[in-house]
Structures are given as C-alpha cells and as structure tokens.
Amino acid sequence: MNRAARTDAAVLPRTDRAITAALLLLTTMIAFENMAVATAMPVVAAELGALGSYGLAFSSMMTAMLLGIVLAGPWTDRAGPLPPVFVGQALFAIGAVLCGAAPSFGILLLGRVITGLGAGLVVVVEFVVIARSFAPEQRPRVFSWLSAAWILPSLIGGPIAGWLATEFNWRWVFWVIVLPALVAGGLLLQRRETLRSPGSYSAAQPTASASASASASDARRLADAAVAMGHVGALDDGALDATADAPVADPAVREAADPADDPADERRQHRRTARLGAVVAGAAGVVQLAIHERPPAVSFLTAAAVLALIAVAIAAPKLLPPGTFRSARGLPSVVLTRALLNGSFLGAFAYLPLMLTQEKGLDATSAGLVLAAGSLGWSAGSWAQGRSRRSGIDERTGLVVLGASLLAVGWAAFVGLTLGHAPVWTFAAAVAVGGLGMGLGSTTLSGLVLELSPDHEHGRASAALQLADVLGTVVGIAAATAAFGIWHTTGAHRGFVIVWIGLAALGALGIVSAARCASETSRSGDDVPHRSL
Fold first, then answer.
1. Whether residues 296 and 331 fall in one domain
2. Are 505 and 252 in contact (CB under 8 A)?
3. CATH assignment of the domain containing 411
4. Number of CB atoms found within 10 A of residue 187's CB
5. pLDDT tens digits for 499-516?
6. Could you tell me if 215 and 246 lie in one domain?
7. Last residue of a domain, which of 255, 277, 293?
8. Do 49 and 106 lie in a common domain?
9. Which DSSP category does 39 fall into?
10. CB neighbour list of residue 96: distance below 8 Å, 6 or more residues apart
11. Do 302 and 339 fall within a single domain?
12. What does residue 453 show for φ and ψ, rounded to 5 degrees?
C-alpha cells in the first residue's frame, strides 16, 4: 500500500469517530468482562457456596453467547444492525447488573446467561457496523484498533478485577462494565442514520448471517478475522495493509459478493443454520444443567440430558464441515483442532484462578497477574506466527502442531506443579507456555481455514470455525466442571489434578488433529484441494 493510501486508511472522517469509539468500547467491555470474571469468580463462588458448580458460570455464558450469535444473523438481515446491537448492549448491561446484585449462585447464572446472549448479539453486529461505516481501505486500521482494544484488557483486566474484589467487593467487577455499554449505545444512537442504510459501501456489504462467521467466543476473534488473509499476527501492520489491498478483505464480505450466490437461497441457509444453532445451544444448556445436578438415579433431568446429547450429535455435524468429528484431512481437521485448542485453553483459564486462591492461598489480584501471563503468551504467539517464514500449508500446519504441543505441555506441567507444591511463579511460566501455544495455533488456523476452502465458501468455513470455538469452549469447561464436581471433595488436590489431566488430554488430541490439517495433495506439493461444506 502506498503512503497516501496508508494515510487515508489511518485518518477517519470525523463522522466515523463516534462509531469507532463505540466499537472500541464494546470490544474493551467484552474483553474486560472475560478476563475480570475469570479472576473474580473464585471469590464469588466461595461467597455463594458454589465451588462444586464453579464452571457453570463460564459455560452457561458461552452457551447463551452461541444462541445470541445464531439469532443475530437472521435478525440483522431482516431489521438492520440497530435493533440487535441495542438489544445486545441492553442485555449485556442488565446481565451484569443482575450478576453484581445476585444473592445466590442461581441468580448469578441467570445473569451470566443474559450477559452471554447480549454478547453474542454484539459480536456479530460489530462486523456489519464496520462494513456499513468504513471504506474497505479503512477497515484494516479499524480492526487493528479493535485488536489493541482486546489485548490491553486481557493484560490488565485480571489484576484490576482482583483488586476490586479484594479491596472493595466482587460485585463491582460486574458493575463497572455497565457504563461502557451505556456510553457505546449513546454513540451508536448518534450515528443511527449511517447504520440504518448500507450507504456507499453496500457493494461489498455482507449479510449479518455471513458476518456471524467472524464472531467468536470473545473479541480476540476480531483480530483473527482481520489478519487471516495475510497469515500474520494481530499486531502486524503489514498484514493489515495486505488485507486492505485485497479486493474484498473480509471472508464474509467475499462470500456475500459472490455473484453465483442466490440471495434467497442464502437467507434460507442462514435461517436453517440459526435453527440448528439454537438446537445445539439449548441442548448444551440442558446437558450442563444435568452435570450440575448430577442426580443419583435416573430422572427426568437425566433423560432430558440424554435426548439433548442426541440432539447435539444430530445438529452439530450439519453446522460443521463433513468429516470434522473423525478428523478428516484438510478443513475438517482445522475446525476440530480449533475446538480442541479452545476447550483446553479456556478450560484451564477458568479453573486456574480457583486453584491459586483455594490451594495456594493467593489473593484475587495475584491470581489475575498469573492469568495475565497467559494472555501475554497468547499475544506473543500470535505475533511470532505472523513473522514466521513458513508460508506453505504443510509448514504452517507444523506451527499448529507446535502450538498444540506447547498447550498440552503447559497443562501437563500443572499436574506436577499442583502435586509438588511448586511456587506460584512456576504456574505463571506454565500458563505463559500454554498461551504461547494457543497464540501460535489459533491464529494460524484462521488462515488455514481460508486456504483450504473455496473463495465462495469462505463465509461458511469461517462460520464453522467460530462455531467450533464456542462448542469447544463449552465442552472443555463443562467436562472440567463435571470432573471437579466429582473429585474435589475426595482430596486436597485431586479435583484440580483431574482437571489438568483432562485439559492436557484435549491439547494432546489437538496435536493429532493438527497433524491432519494439511491435505494429502498439499503435502505432495500439488494445488490445494478446496473442500466444500
């Protein structure tokens, strides 16, 4: 990109600054909430007497977020971005207020579900807002700012939340995110006319359902979506320039602009996807409730859980590339690997603060600093893979294998550190290794999913990847919750050791599936075969 174009992309019109500020606030709000709640939740669970059900506070939100994601697409296609973004912000704020005021763990879970539903709506609509408000050459710069808006809260959100929970009250951890939601809503309200119509950028305008492909378990996926085309880390300006120089940078936009697509067929497909996603989300919620209750005998709840598992087994494969659950070579293994890495990493992130406070005697602030080491490792891994000279699919598959290996090693180290009564800094080192692996693997997979799918199916392939993110997280945390709930009462460290073993096993499975991300044709040096979804 030449200097003049770079300057034009960097300087936004005054009328777009309110939208940019709103997007930055929304991203910061969601990023801070993710890290802050993970840090403060041990204090919350102890006060509300819910250590055995601790993981539900995370998995319930992710399940609701999945529901918000699949509902946001058709809703925005029909009504535009304003209704879902305002409802999403309102739900996010209401859920946060309810969590902060919760007198019991059940009310807290209700608040988490409402918060997750709102977050799911917001992360989808953000992409439609960007497409309607900014020229293609400006979008990479906006994505780079959103990436920074994720990174800073991920580094300082944990310590800040720990300080609030220790010095004041854990309830403030939820309440402090309400104000940014209200301010962002006011800023978007000022620019409602711009958002109400596609405007001058409608030629490359994605449908919201296609934009849902770029949504995620968290705002970090904003960075992945911005840089996936260039195989670079979220902090690489050169990659952002390359993305801007592409005819259509966003894979969702690329799909929507394909003239071969029938809009009516697309809408039908999006509605079908939304229905299947809602089934998966609802069924996952029932399974988590059954895990939480763990009734001693066959009951209505256990029967419902069995039916829910059957529903997930039927619906989930229809939302993912054929062969995903058997790790077929190429795109299916990319999607499966992403799910395994997410489940392993975020499961550990959920339970590490609890272990540090319960077993090591740390306060919430110190536990937040340990989590920050993992976030720093993730950022370093994303940065490193962006500067790797490995350009072929087979070589970049090696980066994913390395990332999954580091993830498994980090959590396996937790087992020895927990049993050996190791000092706290060793846990920080181990979580940094796991974060480094996650950064290497996750961001590389964002690029591979586009290389291994046809241009006109980039949107669907990215949607499958983001669905895998959420499903993997829900499965990882739900499994950890079940294991911890069963084992934590039988010994001082046993519950945590079982959790670390299970999460390390997920990482090890990720090594196996990562090795199959490169198809046989790409390994032989021929043209890459594109797999249709």
1. no
2. no
3. 1.20.1250.20
4. 19
5. 899 999 999 999 999 998
6. yes
7. 255
8. yes
9. H
10. 33, 111, 115, 174, 175, 177, 178, 181
11. no
12. -130, 150
What is the per-residue pLDDT for 128? 74
Looking at residue 112, the DSSP 8-state letter turns out to be H
CB atoms within 10 A of CB 32: 25
Exposure string of 104-113, with b = 16+ CB inside 10 Å and e = fewer, is ebeebbbbbb
CB 274 within 8 A of CB 74: yes
Tokens of 311: 């529903």
Closest CA to 526 of 332, 228, 518, 445: 518
DSSP for 58-86, please give it. Answer: HHHHHHHHHHHHHHHHHHHHHH-SHHHHH
Domain that holds residue 46: 1-255
Query: Using an 8 Å Cβ cutoff, are 436 and 406 in contact?
Result: yes
- Residues 72, 208 contacting (CB under 8 angstroms): yes
| CB contact at 8 A, 35 and 163 | no
Where is the domain boundary, 276, 293, 319? 319
pTM for the predicted model, two decimal places: 0.74
Cβ neighbourhood burial of 117 (10 Å; 0-12, 13-18, 19+): buried
CA dihedral sign of residues 85, 88, 90, 92: negative
Q: Are residues 489 and 424 in the same domain?
A: yes
Kindly list the distances between the CA atom of residue 213 and the CA atoms of 123, 252, 374, 464, in Å, as whole numbers in the listed order. Answer: 10, 7, 26, 7
Please give the tally of structural domains in the chain. Answer: 3
User: Do 284 and 235 belong to one domain?
Assistant: no
Helices within 81-104 (DSSP H only): 82-101
Does 418 share its domain with 308? no
Report the distance separating Cα 201 and Cα 185, nearest Å: 23
310 contacts: CB under 8 Å, gap ≥ 6: none
Beta strands in 410-487 (DSSP E): none
Q: What is the pLDDT of residues 179-222, one digit of tens each?
A: 888 888 888 777 776 665 555 444 344 444 444 443 333 333 44
Q: Looking at residue 500, what is its pLDDT?
A: 92
Residue 290 DSSP class? H
SS (H, E, C) 237-281: HHHHHHHHHCCCCCHHHHHHCCCCCCHHHHHHHHHHHHHHHHHHH
Give the E-state strand segments of 60-213 in sequence order: none
Q: Are residues 235 and 132 in the same domain?
A: yes
